[in-house]
Specification:
The structure is a homodimer of 327-residue chains. By secondary structure, chain A is an alpha/beta fold. Chain A has a domain of 202 residues: NAD(P)-binding Rossmann-like Domain (Rossmann fold, 3-Layer(aba) Sandwich). In chain A, the strands form 4 sheets. In chain A, strands 5-4-1-6-7-8-12 form a 7-stranded parallel beta sheet, sandwiched between helices. A 3-stranded mixed beta sheet of chain A has the order 9-11-13. In chain A, strand 7, helix 5 and strand 8 form a beta-alpha-beta unit. In chain A, helix 1 packs across helix 7 and helix 4 runs parallel beside helix 5. At the A-B interface, helix 5 of A face helix 5 of B.
Chain lengths: 327, 327
């Protein structure tokens, strides 16, 4: 089996490639070959039991998508995207990469013909939804994005469903929850604090909490996100029907519950490193985000959320901190 | 005021231009100039109290959208589209005209800059919805098109909302009900019989009814459709908020109710020209179509549906048959 991953240099892409490299198989089929693509050259997997090509380019450049598809990968994980903030700051770049790039990839697959019909797993986003929401968003709630990024992801979902219906490929779109705990350095994303208030205290550093403790949000660990991708790659798509885009299950919890979980796992001293400093701009942005979903379809299709936020924290400590908390 | 109409040679386009020509104004502002665009050359309005240019081209050809926008029309009615059947039969043409053509038009407007921000009225379609449905579809029901045409219209809606949010233009998308009574000759569209069972008997001809009398559907007269377009052109868009695409109000009635109305308006002899001959293919297609909507937002915003199907029939007789029924 040959697997293509676009966006392979990103955080989720790297974790996906690591997991596939360890497993050496997917859905009971041996992996023979992986193609790893991103705008910067992805790292080749170390000691992989299969051959791997890495490849840096721009998916929206003429001919690039066709090159990626020439070897007819059996499974395509399409993770590549300009992130929300950049797509908002640079209108043309966001549409070029997120909409045109996705469409070029889909059209490159379509153009192969000869019965070629790979599984395509597309990562969509909660940004396809726009306030106001009900308290819990159902699987039939409409998409009214309030960002260009969310618009581009929603268009990708529509194209995925239509190209699948036409038989050009066998696509599944998955809307990932906010990834928490996101490893790495603090960043300036408005959602950054959801990870920051766990990650920085565990690293012995102060973290700023810019919103009230009562703010509720929808979370999944990086490990669960990789699990969703793998599940989407092997699921019998005959069970899904024509509605090919699924809200992934997650944990709907408040900031207070996040902090309580951190206290139980790491103690009061670590929690003491969270400094409360309300930022009205961030509060306003976060107020426009979804808080909870009834992700019934995905759950019935075997996508599994994290069991608890304590589990999420413990997994972060194990995978990113070598099991050690900086007290 | 300068008005641009794309798709001006189509049935709704012609009726819209006729109405504007008679009025000579829109929303209390005098019309100075109209540009009429289509893939075939639209007829210039006769005795118009304003100047008019007609123009035949392909909106998806390089530079054509820019030419249309060069004179900076104040109001743009974007009706041009490949119809559903053709978009399904010719995948690439449908995407080229309905998606790329629309995006080129939107980008041509965006590229003007200098504070140019016209009203754009975009005709979307019930084809953005896909079965299964609730009995009555709310304004918050999700878009899951089951045709390429419906996909292209749904993408147009998303782009319209995002370009409006970014301030490139002031867009309103309206999802028209099935137009009934559609004037002209019988056609082979699966929905053709909804008009055919009224139009042909009134013309002294037999009409075939290929589905059961209990089939329910969502109708608007051509006159109401033009009314929706005009309302969308002048409404204070500050009242709409970021959700710029609206399901238009209509009449949800069964075929039996259509026939009863025809009997009341035109008598038993005319109704006798309807021949029942079930077509399982058409029954199956129609079973996948929406039957009823709660078009609350549009109604609150002043869009007005036809009062009764009898009214629809009488208007058809007045406008298309010169007031005379062929008994």
């Amino acid at each position: 089996m040959h697997i293509l991953v676009t966006g392979a240099a990103g955080m989720i892409g790297r974790k996906l490639v690591d997991r596939l490299t360890s497993a050496g198989e997917l859905g009971g089929r041996r992996i023979d070959n992986m193609t790893l693509f991103d705008v910067v050259e992805p790292q080749a997997p170390a000691n992989a039991p299969f051959s791997a090509q890495t490849y840096a380019s721009d998916l929206s450049a003429p001919g690039e998508a066709t090159k990626l598809i020439a070897a007819r990968p059996d499974i395509i994980f399409h993770l590549a995207a300009i992130v929300s903030g950049e797509a908002e700051a640079d209108f043309e770049k966001g549409y070029r990469i997120n909409l045109d790039g996705t469409r070029f990839l889909f059209d490159a697959i379509r153009s192969v013909g000869e019965g070629y019909c790979p599984r395509v797993v597309f990562t969509s986003s909660l940004a396809v939804f726009g306030a106001p929401f009900p308290d819990q968003i159902s699987d039939e709630f409409f998409l009214t994005p309030l960002t260009s990024y969310g618009t581009q992801k929603a268009v990708g979902e529509l194209l995925l469903a239509d190209y699948t219906r036409r038989g050009f490929f066998d696509g599944i779109g998955i809307r990932l929850p906010t990834i928490c705990v996101r490893p790495g350095k603090p960043n300036r994303a408005a959602s950054g604090f959801f990870s920051g208030i766990i990650r920085e205290p565990l690293n012995g550093q102060e973290a700023v909490l810019p919103v009230s403790d009562s703010v509720r949000h929808w979370h999944a660990s990086p490990e669960s996100a990789v699990g969703f991708l793998l599940r989407a790659a092997v699921i019998d798509s005959g069970r899904i029907g024509p509605r090919r885009n699924l809200t992934m299950p997650g944990l709907s919890i408040t900031v207070a519950e996040q902090i309580d979980a951190l206290r139980r796992v790491a103690g009061e001293q670590v929690v003491g490193r969270i400094r409360r400093e309300i930022d009205p701009d961030i509060e306003r942005i976060v107020a426009g985000w979804p808080r909870d979903f009834d992700a019934r379809r995905a759950t019935e299709l075997g996508f599994i959320a994290d069991r608890s936020f304590e589990d999420i924290i413990r997994t972060y400590i194990d995978t990113e901190l070598g099991g050690k908390i900086n007290q």
